[in-house]
C-alpha cells in the first residue's frame, strides 16, 4: 500500500459518559481529525464508519454512520457501515485503505465509535457477548461471557508458558502507569501487582483490573493517497506499509489468524518485528498482551512474560507497547479501539506524544483483534505504519 | 472496473421461514454460488457479508458473517461485516469489487442475508425502522414507521407528476405477475389494480400490496478478477462496468443520491440508459418504481407513470424492469436484496431466466437504495453489468 497515507487523527477522551450520545462522540473525533489534516468536511470523498453494538444499546442499526455524520453536516459522500467485533475500527481503516489503493478515492474518513454505557449496566456486558455466536456460545448467567473466553485461554496459557498471574499483574501496572500519561485515557494511575491480584475476580484468573473496561469514545483517521497528501502540502504523512485483515485459523495449517495477520503484515511491509519502534496491541485482557507479544513475533513461543518482567515493552524499553495505556487503561469502546490505536501510533510517529513519546519512533504496528467464533478469532487486523 | 467480473450466483427462495435460522439461509445461497462458479469454498480469499438487522432479531451483532460462514466450514479468510440499511447487499458487493479492483484479492464471496420473521410480529417492523434515525425520527405507534417515509414521498410525487394511485396499482400488477414466473419469489400471481387499491392501507396512500413484505432469504455472488476468471476457464463472465455508492444529497447542488449514483454509474460504465436491456430497481414501495424510472433517467421528470401504463418496463417491453418480481413480489429480506437483484441480472445476462428471460440481454443495471436520514437517502448503490 505504498500510495496510502494517514494525514490526520482525532480522538475523544475515553470514559463513562452516560449522558453523551454516540453522535456527539463522533463529532468530536471527526472534527479533530479534519482540523489535524487541515481539510474541510466537504473535501472528504467517502466515509467508513465502525460501530459494533449500537443496535443493542440504542436500537440504531443499519445507518449508524449516516446518522452521526449527517448530524454534523457531513453528507453527500458514500458512507459504509462496518462491524467486526472488537476489530471494527481497524476493519473500517482497512476498507478505507483498500478503497484509496484501488484509486476510487484519494481522501476518505474513517471513524470508529462506541457508546457502551447504559442505565441498565448489564446491557453492555451482554452486548459485548454478541462477539460470540449468540445462538450457541453465550452463557447468560456469567458475569462477563466474553471475558470467559479470555479466561479459558489464559488458564491454558499459564500452564504452557513461563507466565504467572503476577505477570498479568505486571501488564496492568504498566498499562495504568502509561494511561496516567495519556489525557484521553479512561483510567490510569499507580497500582501494584498485589492490588491487581486482589481486585474482584471477573473470570478466574482474570480480576477486574485485568479486563478492559466498559466505556464510551470515538476516534477518527483521515486517509489519503500520497499524491493527494503532497497536493495538500503534507510532506511527511504517516505511510501505511501494510493493512491486513484475517478471520479464523487457516483450514490447512491451523495457523491462527493473529499469527497469520502479523506474518502477512511483515511480509507486505517488507520488514520484521526487529524493525518496529512502537506497538499497539489488543490487550482486551491482560493475558492478551503476553500472548500477542508472541503472535506478533516480539519474542519466542511461551516467552511473553520475559518482555514484561524485563521492561522491554515499557516506556524506555527496547520496544514500548501500548504507550497510550492500551485497552486496559485507555479503555475499550469497542468500535473505537482499532482507530484509537492508530491515533496513538500516528502521534508517536509524528513526535507529539508528550510525556509518553518514544524518542525517534519511525516504524509502528497496530494489532486489533475481535470476536470468537467456532473456537477461533473472528477478526484480526494488523496495520504497519511508518514516517 | 474493467477487471472485475461476477462468476457465480446463488439464492434461496425468499419467504417467511420462521423456523429457518439465518445461517441456514446463508449456507444455501453460498453453496449455490460456489457450485455455479465451479469453485470450492477453500478457493475463496475473502468474504463480504451483508446483514442489516440480526442484532435486533436474534441479538447477533459484530460477527454475523463469521458465525454463518464458519458453521458451513468456511474459515481462515478475511470476513467483513457490512451494513447499509436496505442497500446492505449492494454495499457488500461494492466493497468486494473495490477489493478486487485494488489487486488485493482475485476471488471473493459476497453474501447478503436477512432473517426478518420473528414470533413477535412487531419486532421486524420496528427493526426496519432502524433505517431511520431512531433517536429522532421513529414513530413507534405507526403500523410501519419506515413506510411512512415512502408514503410522504409518494403523496408529494402524486401532486408533481402524471402519476395516479392507479399507476401504483399497475406497478404491483406487473410485479406480482412477474413474481409468479420466479420460483425464488416470496409472492406472485394475478391481481388487478382494483384489488391492489382495495387492499388494507399501511400508510396512506400505500396499501399492503404496494409495500414490500417481511421475509427471510439470502443471495450470494462470487466476484473475481477477469484474469482469475479466465484461469478458471470462464470465458464469458458478467463484467462489472461500474459500482457506485452514494449517501445523501450533494451539499452544493442538492443532487439526490439516487440521481447522482445513476449518473456516475453511467459515466463510469461509458454508456447511458438507452443502452440498457434489463433493470432491477429498488421498489420497496410501489411508488419507488415510478420515481426510480426518473432518477435512473429511463424517462423524463414526472413521466414515470407513462412507462408502466405503456408496458415499456414490462416483460416484452423495450426495457423490462424487475423481471424477478422486484422487492414487492420476490420479497425484501433487507440485507439480501442488493445481492438478489444482481443474481437476477446475472441470470438474465447468462440467458437462464426461463419464462421471464429478456431475449438477448447484454447490459443491465441494478439500483439498490437504503435508509432515510436527515430527509435524505442514506445509501444508494448502482451496479452496471454486461456480458
Summarize this structure as a short list of keywords or feature phrases:
19% strand; 14 helices; 387 residues; 36% helix; homodimer; 11 strands
Characterise the protein shown here.
- The structure is a homodimer of 387-residue chains.
- Chain A is of the alpha/beta class and 387 residues long.
- Chain A starts with a strand and ends with a strand.
- Chain A has helices at residues 22-37, 54-57, 64-70, 88-101, 122-128, 145-160, 165-179, 193-198, 226-231, 257-269, 286-295, 304-309, 326-329, 334-349; strands at 4-11, 46-50, 79-83, 107-114, 201-203, 206-207, 217-225, 238-246, 278-280, 363-372, 377-386.
- The mean pLDDT of chain A is 96.
- In chain A, 36% of the residues lie in helices and 19% in strands.
- In chain A, the strands form two sheets. Chain A has a nine-stranded mixed β-sheet, with helices on both faces.
- The interface between A and B is large, with 63 and 63 residues.
Amino acid at each position: 500500500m505504498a500510495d496510502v497515507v494517514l494525514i490526520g487523527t482525532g480522538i475523544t477522551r475515553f470514559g463513562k459518559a452516560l449522558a453523551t450520545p454516540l453522535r456527539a462522540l463522533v463529532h468530536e473525533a471527526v472534527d479533530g481529525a479534519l482540523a489535524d489534516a487541515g481539510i474541510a468536511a466537504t473535501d472528504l470523498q467517502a466515509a467508513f464508519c465502525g460501530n459494533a453494538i449500537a443496535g443493542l444499546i440504542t436500537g440504531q442499526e443499519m445507518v449508524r454512520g449516516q446518522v452521526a455524520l449527517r448530524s454534523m453536516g457531513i453528507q453527500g459522500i458514500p458512507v459504509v457501515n462496518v462491524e467486526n467485533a472488537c476489530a471494527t475500527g481497524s476493519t473500517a481503516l482497512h476498507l478505507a485503505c483498500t478503497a484509496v489503493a484501488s484509486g476510487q478515492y484519494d481522501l476518505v474518513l474513517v471513524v470508529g465509535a462506541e457508546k457502551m454505557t447504559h442505565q441498565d449496566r448489564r446491557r453492555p456486558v451482554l452486548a459485548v457477548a454478541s462477539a460470540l455466536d449468540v445462538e450457541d456460545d453465550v452463557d447468560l448467567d456469567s458475569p462477563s461471557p466474553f471475558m470467559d473466553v479470555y479466561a479459558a485461554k489464559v488458564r491454558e496459557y499459564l500452564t504452557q508458558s513461563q507466565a504467572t498471574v503476577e505477570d498479568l499483574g505486571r501488564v496492568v501496572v504498566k498499562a495504568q502507569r502509561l494511561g496516567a500519561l495519556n489525557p484521553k485515557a479512561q483510567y490510569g494511575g499507580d497500582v501494584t501487582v498485589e492490588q491487581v491480584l486482589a481486585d474482584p475476580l471477573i473470570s478466574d484468573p482474570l480480576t477486574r483490573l485485568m479486563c478492559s473496561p466498559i466505556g464510551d469514545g470515538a476516534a477518527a483517521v483521515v486517509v489519503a493517497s500520497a499524491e493527494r497528501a503532497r497536493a495538500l502540502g503534507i510532506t511527511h504523512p504517516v505511510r501505511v506499509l501494510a493493512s491486513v485483515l484475517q478471520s479464523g485459523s487457516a483450514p490447512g495449517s491451523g495457523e491462527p489468524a493473529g499469527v497469520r495477520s502479523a506474518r502477512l503484515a511483515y511480509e507486505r511491509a517488507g520488514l520484521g518485528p526487529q524493525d518496529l519502534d512502537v506497538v499497539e496491541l489488543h490487550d482486551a485482557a491482560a493475558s492478551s498482551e503476553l500472548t500477542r507479544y508472541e503472535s506478533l513475533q516480539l519474542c519466542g513461543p511461551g516467552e511473553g512474560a520475559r518482555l514484561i518482567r524485563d521492561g522491554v515493552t515499557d516506556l524506555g524499553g527496547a520496544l514500548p507497547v501500548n504507550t497510550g495505556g492500551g485497552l486496559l487503561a485507555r479503555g475499550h469502546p469497542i468500535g473505537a479501539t482499532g482507530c484509537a490505536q492508530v491515533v496513538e501510533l500516528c502521534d508517536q510517529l509524528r513526535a507529539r506524544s508528550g510525556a509518553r513519546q518514544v524518542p525517534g519512533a519511525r516504524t509502528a504496528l497496530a494489532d486489533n483483534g475481535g470476536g470468537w467464533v467456532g473456537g477461533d478469532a473472528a477478526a484480526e487486523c494488523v496495520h504497519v505504519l511508518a514516517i
